[in-house]
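Mods, move this if it's the wrong board.
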Amino acid sequence: MKLRRGGLRQGGFTLLEVLIAMAVLSIALVAVFELFSAGMRGLGAADDYVCAVVKAEAKMREILDNDPFIEKTWQETSDDGYQFDASIKKTAEDRTENLTVDLFDISLTVVWTRGTKERSLKLTTLKLVNKKI
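Not the wrong board. C-alpha cells:
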C-alpha cells in the first residue's frame, strides 16, 4: 500500500493506463497480422511460380524431344489454366550455312492468372540439329 495525500490508495491501473496499453497492443497486433498476411501472399506467389517452372520445363523437354525439328509457332492451354506460347525459329543462318547443322532458337512463355493478376514466365534455349541433305 502506498500513502497519498488524501489517504491510502489501492494498487492497480487507472482506466487511462489500461486504454493506452490496449491501443499499443492493438497497433502491435495489426502490424504482426500485416506481416503474416504479406508472407502468406508471398508464399502463394512463389508456389505459383514453382508450378509454372515445372510445367514449363516439362513442355520444353517435350519440344526438344520432337523429331523432326522444324520451324513453327503454336499456342496451347493446359487443363489447369496455364497457357503455353511456343516458337521454334532458325537463327544465325549466316554462321551455319557452311556447317552440317542448323541452330534453332526455342522460346516458351507460360502465362497464368491468379485472382486479378496475370503472371508469366519465359524460357529460351538453343538446339543444334543436323541438316537434312
